Every structure is written in structure tokens, then in C-alpha cells.
Amino acid sequence: MTVEDEARALIASLREPDGAEAVLANARAIAPFVRANGGPSDEARGAQPPITDILRASGLLRMTFPRRLGGLEMRTAQQAKAAAIVARADAGIGWNVAILNMTGLYATRLPEAGRLELYPIEDLPTSGAFHPPGRAVRTEGGYLVTGDWGYGSGSPMADHVVGGALEFDADGEPIRHPDGRQVILGIVLPPAAIEWKDDWNVVGLRSSGSGGFRITEPAFVPASHVFARNFPDTAGNDPLNRHSEVGFFGLMGVPVGVAARLYDESLAVVRAKRAAGATIDPFVQVQLVEMADILDGVTHQVFGTLERADRVLFEAGGLLTPMQMARAFATQARAGEAVLRLIKIAGEICGATRALMDDSPLQKVIRDALAITAHGSIRSGTRMGLLEPLLAGEGAASAFDDDEEIAGP
What we know:
14 helices, Butyryl-CoA Dehydrogenase, subunit A, domain 3, 3 domains, Butyryl-Coa Dehydrogenase, subunit A, domain 1, globular, alpha+beta, 49% helix, single chain, Butyryl-CoA Dehydrogenase, subunit A, domain 2
């Protein structure tokens, strides 16, 4: 059976992605195939068929469309779980699952005419990049857009591409919010105007296809293809669109999945040694237990944090406090720190031969893990976002108190 035949059989066996349970079951079903066949995507520096076909069929790329429009509207913990399952098989593909699920949020932030035009169906994955922001100058009926964007994760398999841009009036004067910050727009870019940059030459996360793109000559974009990147927290919005940053919560699953894979590979090495009759060094035994403890801790922290957020957004119908929002991003940084600790321990357990050689599966996992921990949202400094709400008393000062606050009297 060829890889293509195997992929067709797998797609035929997947459940209809009509709910969170089915999508998560599909994620588990496709993970072995992704793990076994991720090589071409890594070499091409972007997800390739048949993996792209399998992702579309699984429902993993449409988890965030709102329920009022017939979408899945999966909770943030469920989204992160799906991303973690796939990232455990291949970190770059799992990264794409998390990033491309911004599609439903981008679509529903558009004016209705633009949403209906650009998204007649949900299965139209949308990549994007907001940094550095481009330039959007108001003109009759829309904007003239230019920009040079980096890190457009998922672009090789995307149907639409969003670019962030600072807004200017027709005379070139910045458009600002009342607090003085310049308005940043999300713009669904015209495909014919996009020039792709061959610049995703990286150590890890190669299969994420996170290359850059540019528009050098001003391209017209109708106003119906434009949305506000940042907006005030709004209790009346769909649960996933009450805060502009909640769409990134699914990314928290990626470091958890990578942490699990580091543990898998290390455990496999130790088990193989034991099966061959070797005596396991007591130091290695301690390290293996430490890996299990780190993985358990970060898993509970990430999913516990997201489940608390989901209780607010989906059950209480409210808004996250500044402390709850800051705690979520601090938790993501904590997951990155756990990955870095696991890389070190895995290298010590497995040794240079298994950790560094090209024919070792652990080598790719380590490369991907290092790339993930370099992302801005996962670096340790993100945890300092807790400081101001903590000192200002804006919400519960600990997760223990947070549970009490959410539960109410």
C-alpha cells in the first residue's frame, strides 16, 4: 500500500467532524500517520499532501467557527488538546493546527458581506502575520495596502492570508484609538498581489511553513475584507471572540505535545536498554521520574488554566479578568520552560548518539522543541505580565483563589 493509498483509507475511516469529541478522536486517529510521514513536509518547509488533505478531512482546521453560524466553537482546552495530540506526532504540523484555527475568528470579525464572500464554507484555512505591521491607507471603498511580513505559519496550505497593517487616512495621517495607540487592522490580502519570500530556513519547526511574504506595490483591498486586530473586551460576543487574544490559547497545546514526545523518546530508550538486559543507572532512573513529573505538572497547569477560562467564557458567559488573561499567557511560558528542562534531561538520558545523529528521531524533536521555545509568546518573559494585575489586585492572586472566584458564592 502506498502512502497515498494509506491516506485515502485513513480519511475514509475518520469520523464526521460534527463536534469536539469527533474532532479529538480524529486527531488521535491521524497522529500515527503524521508521525510516520512528516518527512516530506519537514524537507519542503511546509505541510504537504497527503497530510494537508488529512488535516482538512479531520475537522482540525475549523474548531473556532461560532456555533451560531453552525460551527464547532470548541472550547480553548479542547483546541489545545487537539494541537497537543498532533504536535506529539510532529511539532510543526501541530503548530499549524493551532495557528490555522484562527480562521474562524478572523472570518467572524469581518463585515458580514466579506465573511460570506470569503468563507462560503468553513474549510478555508487562513494563515497570517501581524509583525512587522504593513501600511493600510484609506481610499474610496477600502484601503491601499503594502507590507513586508514575517512568520506566516501555515501559509503553504492556506486558502487565505491575513496581513496586519497600521491604518492611515487618505492624507497619510495615522488613525488612532482614543488612548493614542495607532489602529492595527487585519487584512485578507489579495492573492495575486502577494510575493512569497523563501526565508524559512530554520533549525526546527520546518514543517510549519512559517515563511514571510510581501506586497510592494499598493494593492486595493475592499473594506469588507478588513477587520480590527484589537478590539475592546466585549461580553456580548461569541465566547471565543470576547477577547482579541483568546484565539491564541490553542497554541498552549503545542509545547505540551512536544514535552510528551520528548518523554516518549526517552522512555523508549530506557525500556530498550532494560529489554536488552542492561542495568539502568540509578541516576537515569531519577531523571526519567523527573521527566514524568515535569510532564504531568505542565499538562495539569495548561489544561487547568484553560478549563478555568472556558468556565468563564462558555458557562458564566462573562469576560476574563486581567489576572486570568495574564495567567493564561504565563502558563504558556511555563510550558516552554518545561520543554527546555525536558530537552536537557532527554539529552542526558539518551546520550549524544541518540540525541544528535540525523537518523535519530529524537534529534528532530529537539530541533522542533528549541524552535518552539524561541517564540515570543512562550519565552519566560511573558510571565511578567502577571505582575501588574497581581499588584493592582485585578482578580484572584492565585489559581486556588481563581477557582473560588469563578465558582462564586
